[in-house]
Amino acid sequence: MGAADAEAAARLIAYGLRPKQVPARDAGYSDLVRKYHADSQFKQLTHSVAAGLGLLVLEVNQQAGAVLAATDESVFEIKMDNYARQSKIRERRETEKVLHGVIHLATAALAFPRPDDLANDTYVGRVSVEQVDSVVREACRILDERAAQADENDDPLSDAPELEQAWRVYARRPAAAATKDGRLAPDTTRGMISRALRFLAEQGFLVHINSDRGGTYRTTPRYQIQVRELAADRAFSELLDLDVVAVADDVGTLRAASSETL
């Protein structure tokens, strides 16, 4: 393959780095996606160009476009400090990093609570600030009970070690409080969740629908592909195993388990 193909492969990767751009709104992007699937050599070249940039091609399709993930130490990797700056997080202490990690896990679990949801390319999930907060607080309550039981039995809590490190910090934070000008205080859990969901929307993973329940968003195909990768993460599995995310009906309406329907 020649220089023209290499340039085309690089253009496809460049499209993938623009999170809100999709093939349906760009004929050139759509043509490159078709070429990717029709030409196996071009597909291999695209993966090679991506690898040279420290990127992994997760998926390429007409719905999501080119979905990329940064490899370790890639210049495109979003590290916690960078995320903190983009999300305007005032405190960058380790506890803040843990809390935001839990928030993102809960958001992904709420968006796609069942394996079938992740496998179904037409599925669209919805999440809200209040939903995410309710789910994380329910997880905190369950882990608190397990820790108390473990103490009584003189047996260290080991069922969910990743989450066990975070629940105490989250549970101590107030859910909501207003600033002097009436805005949601940034250091509350719902203030943190609001920033996290806005960040995901800026990255093309969520789309803001309305302001109900503190802010409601729908998922995009790009986010579904990313969560498929996240589903292999141990902490994600631990959160689902707590059974704090449940499906109330066949169409995927969500609720926090052991709490009122959201």
Describe the protein.
By secondary structure, the protein is mainly alpha-helical. The protein has two domains: 68 residues, no CATH class; 163 residues, no CATH class. The protein is built from eleven helices and seven strands. The strands form three sheets. A three-stranded antiparallel β-sheet has the order 3-5-4. Strand 1 and strand 2 form a beta hairpin. The relative contact order is 0.13.
Short description:
By secondary structure, this protein is mainly α. The protein has helices at 3-16, 27-38, 40-52, 80-86, 94-111, 115-119, 129-152, 161-172, 189-202, 221-230, 234-241, and strands at 55-61, 65-70, 126-128, 206-210, 216-219, 245-247, 254-256. The chain has 2 domains: 3-70, no CATH class; 80-242, no CATH class.
